[in-house]
Amino acid sequence: MANPMYRQIAEDLRAQIESGGLEPGQQLRTELELRDHYGASRNTVRDAIKWLTNLGMVETKPGQGTFVIQKIDPFVTTLTGDPTGPGGGEQSAYRSEVDKLDRTPDVSPVQVEIQEASEDIAEALAIAKDAEVISRHERRFIDRTPWSMQTSYYPVAFADQGAERLRSARNIEEGTVQYISETLHIRQVGYRDLVTVRSPNTIETEFFKLPPDGRVPLYEILRTAFDGNGNPMRVTVTVYPSDRNQFIVNVGTVPDLKDPRPSSNTYQ
User: Fold this and answer.
1) Co-location of 79 and 19 in the same domain
2) Residues 138 and 203 in one domain
3) What's the chain's average pLDDT?
4) DSSP string spanning the chain?
5) Least confident of 88-97, 124-133, 163-172
6) In this predicted model, what pLDDT tens digit does every residue of 28-64 receive, in sequence order?
7) In this structure, are 64 and 104 located in the same domain?
């Protein structure tokens, strides 16, 4: 049985995309031009575009047209690591992880605010709901592509007790974990991750250049870091678009990601 007309049109456009005839970011012909080119009705052309959209190959931008989606090379983040280390909340750790894979990291200037803790942040930090926190926000890029947004929250008391640089918009080169350890003698000994999946809000959709229909969800990781007394000392919320991020959780002794070959004593 022959494919319906809309599938024939969609398959032809798909072949052009996969062969490079239609390049990532390139605009398709207008709806009227496609109707004339294929001798098809308006609804048939729209069904073809809808089919390609569901495959994640094209996206329609209101008032602009339909464009080939640019495929992004995913970046793999390892969530497990040294529990006494930065724990994903520092520029240095992020840059090091990206550099190891021969890719180019970049980070926006830090945005610092003093604000009332939301209910979730207050609960995670074990502080009163209306207590003030210092938030340090940054936007991260890999190979010039927007990759993640991260905001870390600290009790205002930390700055009042001597860690005054937390209030500064300047980057803390040694990392806030080390800075807090050196100034307040509060040492991070571990952290807990809570991972959820949700739809992006308007700001996230614009920054990550996501389709406006919300079909690309975000991973949100809420990481709570603890000191040696079991007290929460930092909360970091990071959001990652699912179209360009993958995660690994290592348990036990496993090969390095860049050298996954088994050792010579592997059982046969």
Assistant:
1) no
2) yes
3) 88
4) -PPPHHHHHHHHHHHHHHHTSS-TTPBPPPHHHHHHHHT--HHHHHHHHHHHHHTTSEEEETTTEEEEPPP---EEEE----TTS-TT--HHHHHHHHHHTT--EEEPPPEEEEEEPPHHHHHHHT--TT-EEEEEEEEEEETTEEEEEEEEEEEHHHHHTT-GGGGSSS--TT-HHHHHHHHH---EEEEEEEEEEE---HHHHHHHT--TT--S-EEEEEEEEEETTS-EEEEEEEEEETTSEEEE---SS---TT--PPPTT---
5) 88-97
6) 999 999 999 999 999 999 999 999 998 888 988 888 8
7) no
116 and 208 together in one domain: yes
Q: Are both 178 and 211 inside the same structural domain?
A: yes
Report the distance separating Cα 154 and Cα 138, nearest Å: 15
Which of 68, 84, 111 represents a domain boundary (last residue)?
A: 68
Cα–Cα dist 156/243, whole Å: 36
* Count of domains observed in the chain: 2
Residue whose entry in the numeric block shows the structure tokens 């290592």: 250
Residues in a beta bridge with 144 = none
- Looking at residue 241, its pLDDT comes to 95
Note down the domain range covering 220: 75-248
Predicted TM-score (pTM) of this structure: 0.74
Task: Please indicate whether residue 262 or residue 46 has the higher confidence score (pLDDT).
Answer: 46
Say how far apart CA 201 and CA 212 lie, in whole Å. Answer: 10
Task: Compute the Cα dihedral for 217, 206, 141, 153 and give only its sign.
Answer: negative
The three-point CA angle 248-227-181 to 5° equals 100
